[in-house]
């Protein structure tokens, strides 16, 4: 892909990203996913995208180029980035930081884009005198447009943050249940029925497709970072050792028969019994490993997406280890994942997510947790109560005991149970004054303590901290519990305060959630910090959990 096309795609992506959150938007398709796909939505975009036969010097993109970008995105995961901060927020620090980032990028990137577009225009038009007039004009035009977009995005960040900040107390006091949605970037009522999905998810790719794109992007990023070219260098730790196609000497589109023939030919050549060379055994192992991967359709697909790490599922193993620390897979379905930032996802999962994809992941996690809460917990309690005056929590607590033997499951249940109780108190508040008192006396002090605990442990990080298991567990807990409570709060709000719900159904759910929250608290325990005794118990529980998972897989 030429540098000029990359520059023009970058401009188009910033333009579509900013327009999606335009405060007075009317006909724009705000639900379309980010990237080049949004370019086909909205009549305004026809000014920037034209057919190839109608192209002029100042055309930003042609329809044929859009199709090429879509193909690169689907096949190779080659996808440009929205480098500007465009998503509205209700956090003042994030808004100020995003605004400063946009202004800085306007001065740094605009000259580069102008130069790139100018050079491409000269290349396309030739070295005639007219080209030396129109090409710089086109470069200055689109470089100036990018600068204008960046400055507008900076102003929009501050403006929308002010609006959202002013709306926050009104939503809390006057519209019970309306909470901030990161996907739509606005305050709205969460959906409270099983299998309800946010409307914007209909415009997003499936989870598997998103996973493939993120893995391809991360693989491309790593390959570009190390400047790897799949050429044999003669060293065992060279890039060729990770390129199974080069190991077998076949093209990347080779058929299964070609792979098998290449393997048989190489085995006869390098087999240790026939080749006395010292490196024969290592070469034979490398060839066998490459054949095992490429001859298996599913493993080859993973290799094409994520390379060697994709086949080994390193990211999946890391994510399972984190989930085990916070109670295992069963509890994960109810409370969600922790640390879903782009950096954390790259470190843990080995995937390169963009911000919109992370918002989609969080939304789907919250909806999955809501379905789990309703289907396997609240509906069970409501069914058990039929024909009785009270609900006996004994059976539910017996079920929960099975979840408390892994990692920090007891601490997670205790924290989530108290968060459910706070939502119950909020749902039962009779008016704005009572909700205000609840926030001042209960909710605000709790959230302040959580943030202080988190920043206190952040401030204590030293080089030796990363080698101390107890300190790392403390750090993991205090930096993650806030996110677990946030997911629990949104899920509980959705099952209690969906305005479409009948009052009788709301009452039954409230009673069931009350019993469940008390059961969580009874089966759990507050986090008291990691020490030698607790670390021994924690490590034993994690070993038992992983042993059980291996037995299930076998």
Automatic annotation (TrEMBL):
Compositionally skewed regions (Basic residues) per UniProt: 219-233
SUPFAM superfamilies: Chaperone J-domain
KW Repeat (keyword) present: no
Keyword Iron-sulfur tagged: no
PROSITE patterns (alphabetical): DNAJ_2 (PS50076)
Keywords assigned by UniProt, alphabetized: Membrane, Transmembrane, Transmembrane helix
Membrane-crossing segments per the record: 95-118, 130-154
PANTHER family per record: DNAJ HEAT SHOCK N-TERMINAL DOMAIN-CONTAINING PROTEIN, PROTEIN DNAJ, PUTATIVE-RELATED
UniProt-recorded name of the protein: Putative chaperone protein DNAj
Organism: Trypanosoma congolense (strain IL3000)
């Amino acid at each position: 892909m030429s540098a000029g096309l990359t520059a023009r795609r970058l401009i188009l992506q910033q333009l579509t990203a900013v327009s999606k959150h335009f405060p007075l938007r009317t006909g724009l398709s705000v639900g379309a996913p980010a990237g080049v796909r949004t370019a086909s939505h909205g009549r305004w975009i026809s000014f920037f995208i034209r057919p190839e036969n109608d192209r002029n010097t100042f055309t930003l993109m042609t329809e044929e180029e859009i199709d090429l970008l879509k193909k690169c995105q689907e096949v190779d995961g080659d996808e440009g980035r929205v480098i500007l901060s465009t998503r509205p927020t209700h956090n003042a620090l994030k808004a100020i930081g995003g605004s400063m980032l946009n202004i800085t990028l306007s001065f740094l990137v605009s000259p580069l884009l102008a130069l790139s577009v100018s050079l491409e225009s000269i290349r396309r038009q030739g070295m005639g005198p007219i080209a030396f007039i129109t090409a710089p004009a086109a470069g200055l035009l689109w470089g100036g447009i990018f600068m204008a977009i960046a400055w507008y995005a900076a102003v929009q960040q501050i403006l929308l943050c002010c609006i959202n900040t002013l709306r926050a107390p009104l939503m809390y006091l006057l519209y019970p249940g309306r909470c901030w949605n990161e996907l739509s970037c606005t305050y709205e009522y969460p959906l409270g029925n099983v299998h309800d999905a946010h409307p914007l998810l209909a415009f997003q790719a499936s989870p598997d497709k998103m996973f493939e794109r993120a893995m391809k992007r991360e693989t491309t990023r790593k390959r570009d970072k190390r400047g790897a070219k799949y050429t044999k260098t003669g060293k065992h730790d060279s890039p060729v050792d990770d390129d199974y196609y080069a190991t077998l000497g076949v093209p990347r589109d080779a058929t299964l028969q070609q792979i098998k023939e290449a393997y048989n030919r190489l085995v006869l050549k390098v087999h240790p019994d026939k080749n006395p060379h010292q490196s024969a055994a290592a070469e034979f192992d490398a060839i066998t490993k490459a054949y095992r991967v490429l001859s298996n359709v599913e493993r080859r697909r993973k290799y094409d997406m994520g390379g060697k790490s994709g086949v080994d599922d390193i990211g999946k193993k890391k994510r399972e280890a984190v989930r085990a620390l916070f109670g295992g897979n069963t509890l994960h379905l109810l409370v969600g994942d922790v640390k879903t930032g782009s950096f954390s996802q790259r470190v843990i999962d080995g995937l390169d997510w963009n911000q919109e994809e992370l918002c989609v992941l969080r939304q789907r996690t919250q909806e999955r947790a809501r379905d789990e809460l309703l289907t396997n917990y609240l509906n069970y309690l409501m069914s058990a109560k039929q024909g009785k005056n009270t609900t006996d929590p004994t059976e539910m607590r017996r079920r929960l005991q099975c979840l408390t033997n892994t990692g920090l499951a007891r601490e997670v249940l205790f924290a989530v149970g108290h968060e459910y109780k706070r939502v119950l108190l909020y749902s039962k508040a009779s008016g704005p004054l009572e909700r205000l008192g609840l926030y001042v006396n209960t909710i605000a002090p709790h959230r302040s303590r959580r943030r202080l605990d988190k920043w206190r442990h952040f401030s204590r990080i030293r080089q030796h901290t990363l080698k101390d298991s107890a300190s790392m567990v403390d750090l993991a807990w205090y930096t993650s519990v806030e996110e677990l409570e946030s997911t629990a709060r949104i899920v509980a709000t959705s099952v209690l305060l969906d305005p479409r719900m009948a009052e009788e159904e709301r009452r039954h759910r409230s009673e069931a959630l009350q019993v469940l929250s008390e059961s969580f608290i009874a089966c759990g325990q507050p986090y008291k910090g990691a020490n030698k005794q607790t670390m021994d118990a924690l490590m034993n529980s994690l070993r038992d959990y992983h042993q059980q998972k291996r037995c299930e897989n076998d």
